[in-house]
Amino acid sequence: MKRVLVTGGAGFIGSSFVRHMLRVHDDVEVINYDKLTYAGNLENLREIEGDPRYRFVRADIGDLDAALAALKGVDTVVNFAAESHNDRAILDPAAFVRTNVLGTQTFLEAARRAGVGRFHHISTCEVFGDLALDEDRAFLEDDAYAPRTPYNASKASANHVVMAYHHTFKLPVTISHCCNNYGPYQFPEKLIPLFATNAMEDKPLPLMKSSQNRREWIHCDDHSAAVDVILQKGRIGQAYNIGTGVEKSVEEITGVILGVLGKPASLKTYVADRAGHDRRYLLDMTKIRCELGWKPAIGFEQGIRRTVEWYRDNPEWWKRVKDGSYQRYYENYYKKVLAV
Fold first, then answer.
1. pTM over the 0.85 mark
2. Phi/psi of residue 234, nearest 5 degrees
């Protein structure tokens, strides 16, 4: 039985990956290692409660002793743990450096000491900077990093540390850069869940003035499947882009959300751009397609409609998250689940 430890496994994308691994593989045990910060939510994993192949460890990736204890017998680490919201990074950049850079280095060191056979690091397209709206190119894996925000810089720095552990200590690593994710259980500070839930409450949808800025979009389940393929087939010491080629502006996304929910365009309101707001990201997927044979399976139109409908059909989840009561509710839930 292969043992995989997933850091940040109670978060949006991490929990998708945990569910994917247990659903797809019969010969895998999964350890979910998560500090349970504001965006960590064990309810994201209720469908796998009681699975004997699943175990949860509540700990910080910056805690070396806790990491070493959790890594006993672990074959593979997949590092999703990160502070990831650009707006929060502007308010508290130090927290992003602590978690995304120093936390990653601490876990790399623990993996090195524990003799882990594979360390896969989840990164972002944002490490490459941004593209002009009319630019005819996409980011390649070996493009120079050009981050423009504290969040982007912290992820680029972490990438450098990951590769340094490979070259210096021969730790078997891989990295993936992914585009913008969407899907169920995403914390409603991000565009799609925020706008969907605001629309359901007839609250304004705050579009930044540069609402024609574009992002490439992927369903979290496709992201999870791609990481799984990289673990199976990816070359050690290599990075792989994970994308879809589907670009949508904030205006287009907003229109889809309002259309699915039957809400009026009058809910749109325009606010000032945030500092360092990137114009556009697009990843070249040639490497992962040609080397590993991966391509996305969920079309954007199907995936976005299914996602908005999930928020529509699960108001008890997002209402507790948005009003903050989930933190009190889940402290009791955590105590029950963890028996602490």
1. yes
2. -65, 150
